[in-house]
Amino acid sequence: MMSHLGGLPVAGLLTAVGARSCLVRLAASANGIAFDGVAAVVVFFVISGFCIHLPYASGKAFDTREFWIRRMIRVGLPLIAATLLAHALTGRDGVLDPVLWSLYCELIYYSLYPAFRALVRIVSWSGLLIFSIAPMIAVFAFVQNPSGFLWGYGLSLTWVYGLPVWISGAVLASRLDSILTILARWQIPAIRTFVWLASSIATALHFHSPVRYAASMIVFAPIAYLWLQWEIADAVAHGTVRVFERLGQGGYSLYLIHPLALSLVAGLQTDRIVKFGIGLASCACLTFVFFWTVERPSHQLARWLARKSIRVGVELRAVR
């Protein structure tokens, strides 16, 4: 979201307090690379693979029909609703395109997850990760992508590029008991700073060198994996911040709806600082409404239908 907002209005704030022009330019340049939405999606792919596989790695029985019902409704209904809402409010198509590509990849990964589970009986999750890297490198090496963005490969190949990243999250879930290395409290902030610097460097390289995101994210993905491993270990050892957990429940709504919220205020002719505040407020309000009216009911419906499908399956097996 912050990358689509244009970052923090630091240049405007410094100008307003009379800072030197060189300091304003420096702050504007730093702000331009401070928020990397592409790297955030890479982290999201790792988190997604982890969250999807963790319950089953922890012993939950897997049922393909129940899994597909829960995931497709949980993700699909809000996606459809947001697309219709965006068209109704703006009269334009493509408002949500900045985020839809990653959600389409997610739906593909959910569709393939049962097949992955079958394959890992032969090769393990780590083996599947190794095998998935070759197609990713082939896409990067042989498919033209002038934009250098991950979605530049098109839907038919972007999911192939992102597949090892998603599978790495499942690897993390399958190895959770063996990787919970406890770090000193000062190390987590240091690691977070390093990850942020790595993402900022990737942004700078993309816009100011021949090294585009399609190349730098291959290096950043293992960094994201290790970072999340240490974050999980720290959360297990020291607990989590409850308010962030509650806010995180609306993360999908925020990700899905913020392009629409920002498009609704994009035409405002006002000060950059004021426009930034209005943009944040627009995102917060629309996310709140969308979560309670669309995402949460979709989640509840998905769980109800999944439980229903399990009961029906049990009854059918009993009849046979």
Write the layout of secondary structure elements.
Layout (H helix, E strand, L loop, with lengths): L1 H4 L4 H7 L4 H12 L4 H21 L6 H27 L6 H46 L12 H20 L12 H22 L4 H26 L3 H7 L2 H15 L6 H48 L1
Structural overview:
The protein has 320 residues and is an all-alpha fold. The chain has helices at 2-5, 10-16, 21-32, 37-57, 64-90, 97-142, 155-174, 187-208, 213-238, 242-248, 251-265, 272-319. Helix 4 (37-57) packs across helix 9.
Produce a short descriptive summary:
The protein is mostly helical and 320 residues long. The protein folds into 2 domains: 1-35, no CATH class; 36-319, no CATH class.
Any key phrases for this structure?
320 residues, mainly alpha, 2 domains
Q: Largest beta sheet, briefly?
A: none
Helix/strand class = mainly alpha
Shape from CA axes? globular
* Beta strand count: 0
Give the helix proportion (percent range): over 70%
